[in-house]
Amino acid sequence: MNEHLLTATNINRIFVSKQRSFTALDNINLTIGNHEFVSLLGPSGCGKSTFLRLVAGLDSASSGSLQMNGSILDKPGRDRGVVFQQYSLLPWLLAWQNVAFALKKEKNMRSAEKKELAYHFLDLVGLKGFEEIYPSQMSGGMQQRVAIARALVIKPPLLLMDEPFGALDAQTRRDMQDLLVTIFKETRSSVLFVTHDVDEAIYLSDRVYIMATNPGRIAKQIDIHLSDDKDWSIQLSEPFINYKKEILMELKQQKKNVHQSK
Ligand SMILES: Nc1ncnc2c1ncn2[C@@H]1O[C@H](COP(=O)(O)OP(=O)(O)OP(=O)(O)O)[C@@H](O)[C@H]1O
What we know:
binds adenosine-5'-triphosphate; globular; 4-stranded antiparallel sheet; 10 strands; Rossmann fold; ABC_transporter-like_ATP-bd; nucleotide-binding; 34% helix; 6-stranded mixed sheet; alpha/beta; 2 domains; NitT/TauT family transport system ATP-binding protein; ATP binding
Protein backbone atom coordinates (compact mmCIF):
# COMPACT_ATOMS: atom_id res chain seq x y z
CA MET A 1 0.00 0.00 0.00
CA ASN A 2 1.48 3.35 -1.10
CA GLU A 3 0.91 6.00 1.55
CA HIS A 4 1.85 8.86 -0.79
CA LEU A 5 -0.48 10.35 -3.35
CA LEU A 6 2.39 10.89 -5.79
CA THR A 7 5.79 9.20 -5.87
CA ALA A 8 8.53 10.13 -8.34
CA THR A 9 11.43 7.68 -8.38
CA ASN A 10 14.72 8.31 -10.21
CA ILE A 11 13.10 10.46 -12.87
CA ASN A 12 15.30 11.53 -15.78
CA ARG A 13 14.21 13.59 -18.76
CA ILE A 14 16.73 13.94 -21.55
CA PHE A 15 15.86 16.02 -24.61
CA VAL A 16 17.64 14.70 -27.66
CA SER A 17 17.95 16.64 -30.89
CA LYS A 18 20.33 16.37 -33.85
CA GLN A 19 22.64 18.94 -32.28
CA ARG A 20 22.71 17.82 -28.66
CA SER A 21 21.43 15.71 -25.85
CA PHE A 22 20.31 17.79 -22.87
CA THR A 23 19.52 16.48 -19.39
CA ALA A 24 16.63 18.64 -18.17
CA LEU A 25 15.91 16.43 -15.14
CA ASP A 26 18.49 14.32 -13.40
CA ASN A 27 17.40 11.65 -10.94
CA ILE A 28 14.40 13.39 -9.37
CA ASN A 29 12.98 11.69 -6.29
CA LEU A 30 10.06 13.27 -4.49
CA THR A 31 6.75 12.53 -2.87
CA ILE A 32 3.49 14.35 -2.33
CA GLY A 33 1.23 13.16 0.46
CA ASN A 34 -2.53 13.43 0.73
CA HIS A 35 -3.60 17.02 1.39
CA GLU A 36 -0.03 18.23 1.14
CA PHE A 37 1.15 21.44 -0.53
CA VAL A 38 4.51 20.94 -2.23
CA SER A 39 6.46 23.57 -4.16
CA LEU A 40 9.26 23.35 -6.69
CA LEU A 41 11.44 26.43 -6.39
CA GLY A 42 14.51 27.26 -8.44
CA PRO A 43 16.16 29.38 -11.10
CA SER A 44 14.99 29.57 -14.66
CA GLY A 45 15.78 26.42 -16.63
CA CYS A 46 16.13 24.04 -13.66
CA GLY A 47 13.32 21.85 -15.00
CA LYS A 48 10.35 22.86 -12.82
CA SER A 49 7.89 23.04 -15.72
CA THR A 50 9.35 19.93 -17.32
CA PHE A 51 8.65 17.99 -14.13
CA LEU A 52 5.14 19.39 -13.79
CA ARG A 53 4.39 18.44 -17.40
CA LEU A 54 5.46 14.86 -16.63
CA VAL A 55 3.07 14.73 -13.67
CA ALA A 56 0.32 16.25 -15.82
CA GLY A 57 0.88 13.42 -18.32
CA LEU A 58 1.74 15.90 -21.10
CA ASP A 59 5.26 14.48 -21.53
CA SER A 60 7.07 11.23 -20.66
CA ALA A 61 10.19 10.63 -18.60
CA SER A 62 13.25 9.16 -20.32
CA SER A 63 13.61 6.82 -17.34
CA GLY A 64 12.31 6.39 -13.82
CA SER A 65 8.83 5.94 -12.51
CA LEU A 66 5.95 8.23 -11.62
CA GLN A 67 3.12 6.75 -9.61
CA MET A 68 -0.10 8.19 -8.34
CA ASN A 69 -1.96 6.17 -5.75
CA GLY A 70 0.22 3.24 -6.75
CA SER A 71 -0.65 3.40 -10.49
CA ILE A 72 1.80 4.42 -13.21
CA LEU A 73 1.16 7.92 -14.56
CA ASP A 74 1.67 8.21 -18.30
CA LYS A 75 -1.19 10.32 -19.62
CA PRO A 76 -3.42 13.20 -18.55
CA GLY A 77 -6.30 12.25 -16.29
CA ARG A 78 -9.19 13.62 -14.29
CA ASP A 79 -7.28 12.96 -11.07
CA ARG A 80 -5.07 15.99 -11.88
CA GLY A 81 -6.23 19.56 -12.49
CA VAL A 82 -3.75 21.92 -14.15
CA VAL A 83 -3.40 25.72 -13.89
CA PHE A 84 -0.78 27.46 -16.04
CA GLN A 85 0.54 31.02 -15.92
CA GLN A 86 -1.56 31.91 -18.95
CA TYR A 87 -5.19 31.43 -18.08
CA SER A 88 -6.15 29.96 -21.48
CA LEU A 89 -9.87 30.57 -21.09
CA LEU A 90 -12.14 30.21 -24.09
CA PRO A 91 -13.02 33.81 -25.03
CA TRP A 92 -16.42 32.96 -26.53
CA LEU A 93 -17.67 31.30 -23.32
CA LEU A 94 -19.04 33.00 -20.20
CA ALA A 95 -17.16 32.53 -16.91
CA TRP A 96 -19.43 29.70 -15.74
CA GLN A 97 -19.32 28.04 -19.16
CA ASN A 98 -15.50 28.07 -19.06
CA VAL A 99 -15.65 26.24 -15.73
CA ALA A 100 -18.38 23.81 -16.85
CA PHE A 101 -16.29 23.06 -19.96
CA ALA A 102 -14.04 20.90 -17.76
CA LEU A 103 -17.07 18.66 -17.13
CA LYS A 104 -17.84 18.07 -20.79
CA LYS A 105 -16.92 14.38 -20.58
CA GLU A 106 -19.35 13.82 -17.70
CA LYS A 107 -22.00 12.12 -19.82
CA ASN A 108 -24.18 11.26 -16.84
CA MET A 109 -24.30 14.75 -15.42
CA ARG A 110 -27.21 16.98 -16.41
CA SER A 111 -26.46 20.46 -17.82
CA ALA A 112 -28.19 22.10 -14.86
CA GLU A 113 -25.96 20.17 -12.46
CA LYS A 114 -22.84 21.25 -14.36
CA LYS A 115 -23.98 24.86 -14.20
CA GLU A 116 -24.67 24.56 -10.48
CA LEU A 117 -21.19 23.11 -9.86
CA ALA A 118 -19.58 25.83 -11.98
CA TYR A 119 -21.40 28.49 -9.95
CA HIS A 120 -20.30 26.82 -6.71
CA PHE A 121 -16.62 26.80 -7.68
CA LEU A 122 -16.76 30.39 -8.97
CA ASP A 123 -18.16 31.32 -5.57
CA LEU A 124 -15.26 29.43 -3.90
CA VAL A 125 -12.71 31.52 -5.83
CA GLY A 126 -14.51 34.76 -4.95
CA LEU A 127 -16.34 35.36 -8.23
CA LYS A 128 -19.93 35.25 -7.03
CA GLY A 129 -21.91 37.63 -9.23
CA PHE A 130 -19.44 37.41 -12.14
CA GLU A 131 -20.66 34.10 -13.57
CA GLU A 132 -22.25 35.61 -16.66
CA ILE A 133 -19.39 37.70 -18.05
CA TYR A 134 -16.81 36.94 -20.73
CA PRO A 135 -13.03 36.64 -20.17
CA SER A 136 -12.47 39.91 -22.08
CA GLN A 137 -14.52 41.69 -19.39
CA MET A 138 -12.30 40.39 -16.57
CA SER A 139 -8.98 41.50 -15.05
CA GLY A 140 -6.01 39.11 -15.11
CA GLY A 141 -6.64 38.14 -11.48
CA MET A 142 -10.28 37.34 -12.22
CA GLN A 143 -9.35 35.26 -15.25
CA GLN A 144 -6.89 33.28 -13.17
CA ARG A 145 -9.63 32.69 -10.57
CA VAL A 146 -11.81 31.24 -13.34
CA ALA A 147 -8.90 29.03 -14.45
CA ILE A 148 -8.51 27.79 -10.85
CA ALA A 149 -12.26 27.12 -10.58
CA ARG A 150 -12.07 25.19 -13.86
CA ALA A 151 -9.23 23.04 -12.50
CA LEU A 152 -11.05 22.45 -9.19
CA VAL A 153 -14.49 21.62 -10.59
CA ILE A 154 -13.41 18.08 -11.47
CA LYS A 155 -12.41 17.70 -7.79
CA PRO A 156 -8.93 16.39 -8.56
CA PRO A 157 -6.92 14.79 -5.75
CA LEU A 158 -3.89 16.67 -7.15
CA LEU A 159 -3.82 20.26 -8.39
CA LEU A 160 -0.82 21.18 -10.57
CA MET A 161 0.02 24.88 -10.73
CA ASP A 162 2.80 26.25 -12.95
CA GLU A 163 3.66 29.82 -11.90
CA PRO A 164 -0.06 30.58 -11.74
CA PHE A 165 0.43 34.09 -10.35
CA GLY A 166 3.46 35.03 -12.46
CA ALA A 167 1.50 37.34 -14.74
CA LEU A 168 -0.28 39.25 -11.95
CA ASP A 169 0.64 42.52 -10.25
CA ALA A 170 2.07 42.33 -6.71
CA GLN A 171 -1.13 43.11 -4.78
CA THR A 172 -3.30 40.75 -6.87
CA ARG A 173 -0.64 38.10 -6.43
CA ARG A 174 -0.84 38.45 -2.63
CA ASP A 175 -4.66 38.26 -2.78
CA MET A 176 -4.42 35.11 -4.89
CA GLN A 177 -1.96 33.53 -2.46
CA ASP A 178 -4.44 34.12 0.38
CA LEU A 179 -7.23 32.73 -1.78
CA LEU A 180 -5.15 29.61 -2.39
CA VAL A 181 -4.56 29.19 1.36
CA THR A 182 -8.35 29.29 1.85
CA ILE A 183 -9.08 26.92 -1.03
CA PHE A 184 -6.42 24.50 0.16
CA LYS A 185 -8.11 24.36 3.56
CA GLU A 186 -11.57 23.85 2.05
CA THR A 187 -10.81 21.24 -0.63
CA ARG A 188 -9.03 17.96 0.01
CA SER A 189 -6.73 18.39 -2.99
CA SER A 190 -2.97 18.17 -2.73
CA VAL A 191 -1.00 20.77 -4.68
CA LEU A 192 2.21 20.69 -6.72
CA PHE A 193 3.16 24.33 -7.19
CA VAL A 194 5.93 25.77 -9.38
CA THR A 195 7.36 29.17 -8.52
CA HIS A 196 10.43 31.42 -8.67
CA ASP A 197 9.25 33.35 -5.65
CA VAL A 198 10.85 32.42 -2.31
CA ASP A 199 8.22 34.12 -0.08
CA GLU A 200 5.38 32.57 -2.06
CA ALA A 201 6.89 29.09 -1.73
CA ILE A 202 7.38 29.42 2.05
CA TYR A 203 3.97 31.00 2.65
CA LEU A 204 2.02 28.34 0.76
CA SER A 205 3.93 25.11 1.23
CA ASP A 206 4.28 22.18 3.58
CA ARG A 207 7.48 21.26 1.75
CA VAL A 208 9.74 23.07 -0.69
CA TYR A 209 12.07 21.27 -3.09
CA ILE A 210 14.82 23.65 -4.14
CA MET A 211 16.07 22.79 -7.60
CA ALA A 212 19.36 23.57 -9.34
CA THR A 213 20.30 23.77 -13.04
CA ASN A 214 22.59 21.92 -15.40
CA PRO A 215 21.44 19.31 -14.94
CA GLY A 216 18.02 20.07 -13.43
CA ARG A 217 17.98 18.36 -10.05
CA ILE A 218 16.76 18.62 -6.49
CA ALA A 219 19.41 20.40 -4.43
CA LYS A 220 17.60 20.56 -1.10
CA GLN A 221 14.32 19.69 0.54
CA ILE A 222 12.90 21.91 3.28
CA ASP A 223 9.86 21.00 5.37
CA ILE A 224 7.93 24.12 6.36
CA HIS A 225 6.16 24.20 9.71
CA LEU A 226 3.99 27.30 9.95
CA SER A 227 0.56 27.66 11.49
CA ASP A 228 -2.39 26.34 9.45
CA ASP A 229 -4.24 29.52 10.39
CA LYS A 230 -1.68 31.72 8.73
CA ASP A 231 -2.25 35.09 7.16
CA TRP A 232 0.19 37.44 5.41
CA SER A 233 1.58 38.73 8.74
CA ILE A 234 3.31 35.39 9.30
CA GLN A 235 5.78 36.55 6.65
CA LEU A 236 7.22 38.91 9.27
CA SER A 237 7.69 36.16 11.86
CA GLU A 238 11.05 34.74 12.91
CA PRO A 239 10.43 31.17 11.66
CA PHE A 240 9.41 32.53 8.24
CA ILE A 241 12.52 34.69 8.02
CA ASN A 242 14.69 31.76 9.06
CA TYR A 243 13.25 29.60 6.25
CA LYS A 244 13.86 32.47 3.86
CA LYS A 245 17.50 32.77 4.97
CA GLU A 246 18.03 29.03 4.52
CA ILE A 247 16.57 29.07 1.01
CA LEU A 248 18.38 32.23 -0.10
CA MET A 249 21.69 30.80 1.18
CA GLU A 250 21.10 27.65 -0.86
CA LEU A 251 20.28 29.65 -4.01
CA LYS A 252 23.32 31.87 -3.45
CA GLN A 253 25.56 28.83 -3.05
CA GLN A 254 24.23 27.44 -6.31
CA LYS A 255 25.16 30.68 -8.12
CA LYS A 256 28.65 30.53 -6.59
CA ASN A 257 29.09 26.93 -7.78
CA VAL A 258 28.04 27.90 -11.32
CA HIS A 259 30.58 30.78 -11.40
CA GLN A 260 33.37 28.56 -10.03
CA SER A 261 32.70 25.85 -12.61
CA LYS A 262 32.97 28.36 -15.53
N1 LIG B 1 10.93 20.24 -25.60
C1 LIG B 1 12.16 20.60 -25.22
N2 LIG B 1 13.22 20.34 -26.02
C2 LIG B 1 14.48 20.67 -25.63
N3 LIG B 1 14.78 21.26 -24.45
C3 LIG B 1 13.76 21.53 -23.64
C4 LIG B 1 12.40 21.22 -23.95
N4 LIG B 1 11.60 21.61 -22.91
C5 LIG B 1 12.44 22.15 -22.00
N5 LIG B 1 13.71 22.09 -22.42
C6 LIG B 1 14.89 22.57 -21.68
O1 LIG B 1 14.85 22.00 -20.39
C7 LIG B 1 15.31 22.94 -19.42
C8 LIG B 1 14.28 23.07 -18.33
O2 LIG B 1 13.16 23.80 -18.83
P1 LIG B 1 11.91 24.15 -17.92
O3 LIG B 1 10.97 24.97 -18.74
O4 LIG B 1 11.40 22.92 -17.30
O5 LIG B 1 12.60 25.07 -16.81
P2 LIG B 1 11.92 25.92 -15.64
O6 LIG B 1 12.68 25.63 -14.41
O7 LIG B 1 10.45 25.68 -15.63
O8 LIG B 1 12.23 27.40 -16.16
P3 LIG B 1 11.35 28.74 -16.01
O9 LIG B 1 11.33 29.04 -14.54
O10 LIG B 1 12.15 29.75 -16.79
O11 LIG B 1 10.00 28.49 -16.58
C9 LIG B 1 15.60 24.24 -20.17
O12 LIG B 1 16.98 24.34 -20.41
C10 LIG B 1 14.85 24.08 -21.45
O13 LIG B 1 15.49 24.76 -22.51
